[in-house]
Design goal:
This protein has 50 residues and is mostly helical. It has one domain. The protein is 96% helix and 0% strand. The protein is built from 1 helix and no strands.
Amino acid sequence: MENDTQTTTSRPLSNSIKELAEQFLRAVSYSSHIRASFRKHRLHEASWTL
């Protein structure tokens, strides 16, 4: 019984960790994308002022 409970408790835990990792990677890629677009915008404004 103990082994069964351990496997059932560890399984959803790993699933939640996977979901958290995916969300974290998504957030990181999203923030880097925003940073890249912001940099492009800044460069565009700089070229306009020059």
